[in-house]
Amino acid sequence: MRLHVVSDVHGRADALARAGEGADALICLGDLILFVDYDDPAQGIFAELFGADNAARFIALRTAKRFDEARAMSAALWASLDGDPREHIERNVRRQYETLFAAMPEPAYLTYGNVDLPRMWADHLRPGHRVLDGETAEIGGLRFGFVGGGLRTVYRTPNELDDDVFDAKVAALGEVDVLCTHIPPAVPQLLYDTVARRHERGSEATLELIRRVQPRYALFGHVHQPLYPRMRIGRTECVNVGHFRGKGVPYILEW
Fold it and tell me: What positions does the domain Calcineurin-like phosphoesterase occupy (predicted)?
């Protein structure tokens, strides 16, 4: 059995269309849309609406952890648009989702990232796409468990969840052979982004499940340039499958 696994697609429809080649199925761990691109401020929804210069300034404020100033700047820009800001966001997100789901290979097993808008996915799914969140699926004789979304942070991305909500989804999985999440378990080495120079937030519930159940693999993304891309916890191989927008190639899982 051969699966290709991607995470943090962030608009890379061109590479996504090729990501399933040679695989029995694709797994996507979320973050499909590109709202703001820290590597190229001219890309993403924010730049489309407000220009690359404003996007670069917004990124610089957030990188410097001047969050109040970033929010004030963002609020002023949104207020300058005609109509409800949510309409502008959803129109651009919908356009990205149309392109990305059209490119998404079939069959594919998907869960949400922290920047995704789950309520909009159903309009774009194709027959071979199966979305799982706090749910399991048997693939090639192994039991895969999926948990989407992220936890609350100062960045306030759209699909951040309260700890108890996220933890309940982890608890619902039970015994699994492969754990698939968007965010990593709460291990500092797996959470540190060497380019952003910050720790992202990971899940204590996910770490506890790994220690207790010892699945073969724990697969995740979210941290784009991790200090440790993989680590073993007991018998479990924990793997950051990579920043797909940057790499353009999937992680390969075979058994």
Answer: 1-226
